[in-house]
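Task: sequence design from structure.
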């Protein structure tokens, strides 16, 4: 689930349970699993991690010594030879849900395969068990000492990686599932000069919760408070000038995070993106009569889609169109990774970050 539950002992057999879900530099790590250098085949266990270079269990430290584990995926086009480079590529940052790891999220979403097709780098930050025993990002404590600090640490990692690899600073995107969606929203709202667009899958409304108990309540019913002030309480004021293009995806059968959260997120991000308040959203139903069916609602600024809501008809609390062999990912629904990347492709942040590292 998106917020923590009481810790229980694991049964001997696996059970499916809902989820939620220098400057700094990377230090030495284990040899990349599934790396495909000349004459070397990918390891069978890493076959689902793409044709490029997968680097797991890396560690980042910021200026204050705070540490963050992460995995990095470099697409095949930039990892195939010694002279290949990721310079100028976009970056997609993927934030897992509770009880997930970075490698499980990479396998379940198959985002690395889209990175190979679209030539972008992917980072998978991983929450520490020492910070939260179920690996939940603390979106439900958005203050500067908890969730806000985690969002800032993720932003510091992003800036370090952009500088290290020469990535395109105007094409940096963040996406997350459940608790990861809540954290993706915090990263984007606290660092709007850095993030060009955000995608939130099965995520909670922004700014409503301030402790774990509040988080569970928010998940179950959304917010009963005015929505705009909730955004203001957690965001950098610059976001109201810069805007924040957003994609929201949610299963209509979700038992863990009520679909009302998605509709409230839609209203929150509508206020941020300078859309004409009198213009009607553009609605379509796609895949009608199939397990891929979903309702899509677009808000335009001029001719550009700056906000999109995808309400997925037959989906529960899982990544839509993912690898069903991985927990918290479902075969049903459209391919969420494809929807996320296609939305991101149309977004770009003008100008450079104000806080380069």
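Answer:
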């Amino acid at each position: 689930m998106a917020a923590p539950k009481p810790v229980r002992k694991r049964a001997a057999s696996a059970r499916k349970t809902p989820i939620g879900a220098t400057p700094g530099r990377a230090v030495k790590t284990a040899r990349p699993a599934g790396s495909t250098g000349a004459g070397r085949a990918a390891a069978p266990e890493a076959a689902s991690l793409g044709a490029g270079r997968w680097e797991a269990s890396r560690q980042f430290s910021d200026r204050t010594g705070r540490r963050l584990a992460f995995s990095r995926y470099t697409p095949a086009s930039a990892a195939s030879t010694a002279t290949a480079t990721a310079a100028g590529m976009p970056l997609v940052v993927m934030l897992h849900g509770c009880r997930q790891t970075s490698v499980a999220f990479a396998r379940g979403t198959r985002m690395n395969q889209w990175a190979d097709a679209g030539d972008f780098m992917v980072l998978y930050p991983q929450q520490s068990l020492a910070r939260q025993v179920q690996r939940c990002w603390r979106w439900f404590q958005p203050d500067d000492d908890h969730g806000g600090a985690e969002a800032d640490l993720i932003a510091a990692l992003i800036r370090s990686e952009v500088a290290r690899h020469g990535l395109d600073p105007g094409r940096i995107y963040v996406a997350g599932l459940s608790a990861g969606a809540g954290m993706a929203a915090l990263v984007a709202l606290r660092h709007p000069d850095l993030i060009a667009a955000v995608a939130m899958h099965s995520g909670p409304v922004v700014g409503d919760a301030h402790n774990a108990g509040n988080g569970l309540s928010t998940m179950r019913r959304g917010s009963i408070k005015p929505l705009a002030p909730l955004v203001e309480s957690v965001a950098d004021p610059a976001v109201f000038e810069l805007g924040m293009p957003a994609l929201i995806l949610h299963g209509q059968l979700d038992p863990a995070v009520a679909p009302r959260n998605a509709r409230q997120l839609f209203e929150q991000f509508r206020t941020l993106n300078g859309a004409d308040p009198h213009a009607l959203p553009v609605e379509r139903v796609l895949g009608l009569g199939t397990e891929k069916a979903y309702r899509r609602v677009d808000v335009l600024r001029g001719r550009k889609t700056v906000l999109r809501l995808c309400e997925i008809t037959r989906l529960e609390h899982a990544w839509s169109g993912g690898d069903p062999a991985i927990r918290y990912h479902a075969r049903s629904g459209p391919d969420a990774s494809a929807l996320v990347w296609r939305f991101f492709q149309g977004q770009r942040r003008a100008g450079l970050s104000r806080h380069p590292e």
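The chain has ten helices and eleven strands.
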